[in-house]
Amino acid sequence: MNPAGAAAPSGRTQLLALRRWAGAALLAAIAFLFVLPIVWMTTTSFQAGEKMFQLTTEWIPSVLHPENYPNALSRADFPTYFLNSGVVSLAVTAGNIVFCTLAGYGLAKFRFPGDRFALLLILSTLMLPLEVTLVPTFLVIYNLGWMNTYQGIFGPLLVDAFGVFLMRQAILAVPSDYIEAARIDGAGEMRILWRVVVPQCKPALAVLAVFAFRDSWDQFLWPLTVVSKDEYRTFPLGLVKFGEYYGNPPTEQMAIAVLATIPVFLLFVALQRWVTRGFGLSGLK
Q1: pLDDT digits (tens, 9 = 90+) for 217-250
Q2: Is residue 157 a contact partner of residue 234, using CB atoms and an 8 Å limit?
Q3: Count of CB atoms situated within 10 Å of the CB of 259
Q4: Angle at alpha carbon of residue 282, lines to 278 and 285, rounded to 5°
Q5: What is the DSSP letter of 127?
Q6: 211 burial class (0-12, 13-18, 19+ CB within 10 angstroms)?
Q7: Euclidean distance between CA atoms 233 and 242, whole angstroms
Q8: Per-residue pLDDT tens digits for 132-172
Q9: Exposure check for the chain: N or C terminus, fewer CB within 10 A?
Q10: Statement: the pTM of the whole predicted model exceeds 0.90
């Protein structure tokens, strides 16, 4: 029996609790599906080479082979490949943060003839895959003499339409009264952007940084197009060359792949708090 004065839980309350448990179980199942390939890749990187071809998966290796990591790193110039990817990814991330913020500020807080058309034109580029713009972009880079250079790799990736839209949506949420008050106080537009707008857009900037870094870190087709010298190869190009020319065990390729996930993982962990808020407060809501 219920204690005196205590009301029995209503059917609606029980239904809401059941829905929450069902939602949590569904999210846990989806998270498991996403994590499972990463777990398999990590465990495989510590196994012997012949274990890769067994019919059954050995999730916990009976014998660990940590030597797969130094062996894999020694078979190619992976330190240079990782350095190149780091330089390109940081440049792309910085470029997207700067240029997408400037474009988003202009589209969000300024009115000029054709502003809506400009936004639609920018968003329309999201429908164009890289393969469509590959040849004209290559011709531009070639005529600039940027083949086999860092700027040739990261130049076309410094601004992205998704980043412009994301920052515009975030800046729209900044009250215009703050900006007008700063203008009355004599602040210039760049000072207003830096001191008033940017501090209120940190979640969106964190989301943009993670997406830009991840996309440029995993970029394969464009570096393959503009790079022919080994000293400018990025990690994805080095991994393909590792598998094609060296005939190494697949477990060593898995070891390199595990190392490649670490920078993106660390960046996400560092910005996790802001990224979570960004999904809730930005235009992705």
Answers
A1: 999 999 999 999 989 999 999 888 776 655 667 8
A2: no
A3: 16
A4: 100
A5: G
A6: middle
A7: 12
A8: 889 999 999 999 999 999 999 999 999 999 999 999 999 99
A9: N
A10: no
